[in-house]
Design goal:
The complex is a heterodimer. By secondary structure, chain A is α/β, with parallel strands linked by helices. Chain A has 8 helices and 5 strands. Chain A has a 5-stranded parallel β-sheet with strand order 2-1-3-4-5. The N and C termini of chain A lie far apart (57 Å). Classes of the chains: A alpha/beta, B alpha/beta.
Chain lengths: 213, 158
């Protein structure tokens, strides 16, 4: 299926969505074209994607939904030509993918109302640090994305099993919750953030309330 | 009562309110740079919303006149939501049984959303309203009301 991938991250080639897109097309025999919503005029891009049989938007989760720039593109997206398909891959910071249910519901309704065949929305939590991790720590994720893309090229759909694995956990289990609460109480969960703040000489200002009067 | 109005349509007279008029203002898009968490905590790298932020975080209530766009929040309003991230800390908390960011401020205003626009289905309306409520729940707003503008007119408020 002649598919275009739209990277919906404001960071363009420098973010996690770019990594997801590159891993998704890595094992394809004929890798899809990738375009960057952040670099395009939304109206012209909406016109351009009309010539493809399928559109896949890969994006980060911002405030429970798509980044504003992606919504600006969606505002110009035209109803599907016969048989055109639309799908989404969302990478998010929080570990549980239940946070994505609100946008997932919208994207399903959107595809239906614009007469696209809905490919589905693949969600992956705990992805904010993907670009910072050494490759061995991303090995499993990359393999899943490689397979997702390879199978997509063959079948024209998202593999159900891989989609399910990437979307796990949907909700935090009791054990995960207890563990995360422990990290929160001991302050261990803040260590990474504190390193970034210190590197930027901003640690002392971390709790600032600059607009309170 | 300190009131902030964010409007995408209409011309409602709300006494003593600060108005962010999104029919005239295009909010600069979030860059995803995390400057507001790492470099200048609580402050966005863009400065176009600084006056608004000062009114917003000190308000008792926020009234949003939102235009439904493609069955969802408009791109401009969504960008405004994205740019609310500086008002929260990067740290996460699990006290509600799910992951949430920790609030930066002690209190946040109440919000009333009055939306204008049609939906192709009742499901579409529910998706929109659920998203709005969820967003302000995660923003730690206490009183959250999401209604079509028609209801407000019927109630005689405007």
């Amino acid at each position: 299926m002649n598919t275009i991938i739209l990277n919906g991250s404001p960071k363009g080639t420098k973010g996690n969505s770019e990594i997801f897109a590159r891993q998704f097309i890595k094992d394809m025999k004929h890798p899809c074209e990738v375009k960057y919503i952040a670099n395009e005029n939304p109206q012209q891009l909406a016109q351009y994607v009309q010539d493809f049989e399928a559109i896949i938007i890969i994006m980060p989760l911002y405030v429970h939904a798509m980044p504003g720039i992606v919504m600006k593109f969606i505002e110009h997206l035209k109803p599907a030509k016969k048989g055109q398909a639309l799908g989404f891959i969302i990478q998010a910071g929080f570990p549980e993918t239940a946070h994505e249910q609100y946008i997932e519901n919208y994207l399903r309704v959107l595809a239906q109302e614009l007469n696209y065949a809905y490919l589905g929305t693949v969600c992956k939590g705990e992805a904010a640090g993907t670009y910072m991790k050494p490759e061995f720590m991303n090995k499993k994720l990359f393999k899943q994305l490689n397979n997702l893309g390879r199978l997509y090229e063959g079948t024209g759909g998202f593999d159900k099993g891989i989609k399910e694995k990437l979307g796990h956990p949907y909700k935090l289990s009791k054990f995960q919750l207890t563990f995360l609460q422990l990290l929160e109480q001991t302050g261990i969960g803040k260590i990474g953030w504190h390193k970034f703040l210190k590197d930027n000489n901003a640690y002392d200002k971390r709790l600032d309330k600059p607009f309170l009067f | 009562m300190k009131t902030v109005v964010i409007k995408e349509y209409g011309d409602f007279a709300i006494p003593n309110a600060y108005v962010l008029d999104l029919t005239q203002v295009t909010v600069k898009d979030c860059l995803g740079c995390w400057t507001c968490w790492w470099k200048t905590p609580g402050r966005c790298v863009h400065k176009d919303l600084d006056e608004f932020y000062a009114k917003y975080v000190n308000a008792d209530r926020v009234i949003i006149f939102a235009k439904v766009s493609r069955g969802f929040v408009s791109g401009n309003l969504k960008t405004l939501f994205d740019r609310s991230i500086p008002h929260y800390l990067p740290y996460t908390t699990y006290t509600t049984g799910e992951t949430m960011h920790v609030p930066r401020y002690e209190r946040y205003p109440d919000v009333e959303v009055y939306y204008l626009g049609e939906f192709a289905s009742e499901e579409g309306r529910k998706v929109y309203e659920d998203y709005m409520r969820r967003t302000f729940y995660q923003f730690y707003f206490k009183g959250i009301s999401v209604k079509p503008i028609g209801e407000l007119c019927l109630e005689g408020v405007i």
